[in-house]
TrEMBL record:
<feature type="transmembrane region" description="Helical">
    <location>
        <begin position="100"/>
        <end position="122"/>
    </location>
</feature>
<feature type="transmembrane region" description="Helical">
    <location>
        <begin position="159"/>
        <end position="178"/>
    </location>
</feature>
<feature type="transmembrane region" description="Helical">
    <location>
        <begin position="184"/>
        <end position="202"/>
    </location>
</feature>
<feature type="transmembrane region" description="Helical">
    <location>
        <begin position="281"/>
        <end position="303"/>
    </location>
</feature>
<keyword id="KW-0472">Membrane</keyword>
<feature type="transmembrane region" description="Helical">
    <location>
        <begin position="15"/>
        <end position="39"/>
    </location>
</feature>
<keyword id="KW-0812">Transmembrane</keyword>
<protein>
    <recommendedName>
        <fullName>Prenyltransferase</fullName>
    </recommendedName>
</protein>
<feature type="transmembrane region" description="Helical">
    <location>
        <begin position="250"/>
        <end position="269"/>
    </location>
</feature>
<keyword id="KW-1133">Transmembrane helix</keyword>
<feature type="transmembrane region" description="Helical">
    <location>
        <begin position="227"/>
        <end position="244"/>
    </location>
</feature>
<feature type="transmembrane region" description="Helical">
    <location>
        <begin position="59"/>
        <end position="79"/>
    </location>
</feature>
<feature type="transmembrane region" description="Helical">
    <location>
        <begin position="128"/>
        <end position="147"/>
    </location>
</feature>
Amino acid sequence: MAFLKSVWPSRARGLWRLILVLNVTSLDAPIVAVVWFVVLTCENDHSANIFSVANRKDIATGLVLAMTVWLIYCGDRLLDSFRSGAAVRTARHRFSRRNWRLLLLVWTTVFGIDAVVATIYLPSAVQLFGVVLALAVGLYLLWVHAFRRRSAMQWKEPIVGILFAAGVVGAYATNAGMMNGGRGVSVGVLLAGLFTLNCWIVSRSESVWLLRVGGESVSAGHIHDRFLYVWTIGLVALSVWGLATEWLAWTLGAAVVASCIALSGLVYRMQCVTSGKASRFALLADPALIVPPMLVVGTQLLYRSWMHVR
């Protein structure tokens, strides 16, 4: 693929190539959203196993969630790529700026498909939640891109983490109707903390690299590595407390803890390499939210399947 040479100077190969393609095309974010939607679904559907088939409503909700997340992330990056010269120095923003016409065409097409699927297949509760979330995302985009406030960029990661968690938890809760208000808020806070940690790690690595090449960084460059470790420990402690008090099922708790361990290992690894390589390892931040929960859910499904045929 020709665009890889223009956005990644070292000519990514093998698995790095796949990770880079997912990153610059904004496809990693919807994968993260769907994976955690599946985690919540498997957590509460005790009959789920590898022999069971997901119902049409769950499939439609997951599909709409994936398309909506991609629309938001792709749109945000398109706006970011034209906001400042510093942003264009990152691979994903350079790709968005150089291919904005194609991305705009794809974005419009996906938006139409998303609207049709949501209107036909989703319950009214999910549709209403989607409208509310769309308004919140619209206010966020207006705050960041229209007003272009420096304070908006400094709070961008927590806001993205909160909105992302609200989308995943809200989509599941309104679709399944199996999560009470108090527990839903608790799970939302936990996932918001996890997704914010992910955003901080990515933004911090990019901020260090931008400062090195003389660009302006107004995002998470002020976040210290020690703070990231403390934040991770807090998330693990909250997960353990949730498991002990039984408001958190072991599937979600184990997935959060596993992702926290992966992200903390990534932070440590990034400390041991140069700034240039740190920006490359930052590409693993989203896989750290994909692979661990998939392993947890896969283990659970295999165990349930074994018990089913036993």
